[in-house]
Amino acid sequence: MIIVLRRGATEQDVLQIEEAIKAMGLTAHISRGVERTIIGAIGDERKIDPESFEGLPIVEKVLRILSPFRLVSREFQKEDTVISVGGKTVGGKALALFAGPCSVEGHEMMVGIGGRVASAGATFLRGGAFKPRTSPYAFQGMGEEGLKCLVEAREATGLPVATELMDPRDLDLVARYADVIQIGARNMQNFRLLTEVGKLDKPVILKRGMSATVQEWLMSAEYIASEGNQKIILCERGIRTYETATRNTFDVSAIPVVKSLSHLPVIADPSHAAGKAGLVEPLAGAAIAAGADGLMIEVHQQPERALSDGPQSLKPDAFAAMVVRLRRVAEAVGRTL
């Protein structure tokens, strides 16, 4: 249930409603919009009598949220969420651009790629220190040393860094180094992990699971939001279908669908969707045209020698040239890149 307060509601008014909700054994979530403040009552709604709030002078109306995902729904918050981190934003008119290698492979390599993508227009630096691999014999990442490489690249470029968290036991370690924490496709329904990152005051990229429906994806986001962290960035990275021509099938339709259902920003990862460097640009352009709030692109100086995902990685010069062309697509839909 959501309680919409009238324009001009004071902090004392908000506190009064919040305390009443807590007294009923529910959790109160507050969303302050441009014109209205909305308070969500989360829990067993049978404990609430809507009339007890509707009679208050400061309350404009009381509504029941019909969607199973409540805090991340458009019903709960009409305005798009814009997430700020390190002077950069995800959401709004300007598109976010996450770029970097699939895996961190060393200090010199990471600083070098960081400088190249930053000069090309990237707003965030990405790189995996812990890597979930299909084979137990494949490169699993550099761990904490990889996180230190990311920090060194951040200091050299000024770009906030994003990296993947795979295990709740590594949460404190990863959170200490990273500006943005990524939950990968394989962990989209690792509910223990989602619950733990929900307790952080740090942006979280939630990638869509390999075979997840849109509703399942948003329900996973709800796990994070229900713990108090609403700094969630959804990422479409392709889903598994019968098609084998690409690594995954890029579901471009999911972008406008999710944006109609949720206020959270949505970015796209055409690198993992395509699995082939030559397909990254057309899929990136399609994502922008469909309304994506940003892109995640894999970049490596020598893709043929990359320790993971070399075939889908762009060389720095190709990345820079692509960004120039994608800016025209962004301009055509009223966005900037």
Describe the structure.
With 337 residues, the protein is of the alpha/beta class. It has 2 domains: 2-63, 2-Layer Sandwich (Alpha-Beta Plaits); 83-332, Aldolase class I (TIM Barrel), CATH 3.20.20.70. The chain is 34% helix and 18% strand. The protein contains 11 helices and 14 strands. It has helices at 11-23, 51-54, 107-120, 144-157, 171-177, 191-197, 214-226, 254-261, 270-274, 277-290, 316-332, and strands at residues 2-5, 27-32, 37-42, 59-63, 83-85, 88-90, 96-100, 124-126, 161-164, 180-183, 204-207, 232-236, 266-268, 294-298. The strands form 3 sheets. Strands 7-8-9-10-11-12-13-14 form an 8-stranded parallel barrel, surrounded by 7 helices. It has a 4-stranded antiparallel beta sheet with strand order 2-3-1-4. Helix 6 crosses helix 7 and helix 10 (277-290) runs parallel beside helix 11 (316-332).
